Amino acid sequence: MHPARADLSLANVLYALGDPIRLKVVTELAATEEGDSCQHIVAGMNVAKATQSHHFKVLREAGVLRMEPQGRRLLVRLRRDDLEARFPGLLDAILHSCQKNPEILPLTNEKAPV
To answer: I need a surface site. Which of 29, 37, 59, 88 has the fewest CB within 10 A?
Structure first.
């Protein structure tokens, strides 16, 4: 389900972060240490549920996110430590770029490309 730290691939991580919706999910998660529920993360993004599931799956399989069941919901966390250990500075550089160039992220309540 979740790749081990040693199995994280730069190509897969970059592919996963190459989509504006997935990049928005990662920036939202980067703002919290505890993680959040899938529904809360994508609230206001106006993305179909099947599309949301696909984006979370791509991020999880690339090793960017960890999803843990908590009761009736999934808690989603950014695998910051694993990404930093495997690819030092990559996540911080991408998040910094998103802060400096917010136009690359989809706006809340705006129809995002599927």
So the answer is: 88
d(C-alpha 51, C-alpha 37), whole Å? 16
Positive or negative, the CA dihedral 28, 4, 67, 54 is: positive
Residue 22 near residue 16 (C-beta atoms within 8 A): yes
Q: pTM surpassing 0.85?
A: yes
Say whether domain 5-98 belongs to CATH 1.10.10.10.
yes
Alpha helices in the chain (DSSP H): 10-17, 20-30, 38-41, 49-62, 80-86, 90-100
Q: What tokens appear for 87 in the block? A: 């690819």
How do residues 38-51 score in pLDDT, each as one tens digit? 888 888 788 888 99
**Rounded mean pLDDT of 11-34?**
93
Q: What number is the average pLDDT over the span 89-103?
A: 90
Amino acid at 7: D
Check: CB of residue 114 under 8 Å from CB of residue 95.
Answer: no
Cα–Cα distance, 89 to 84 (Å, whole number): 6
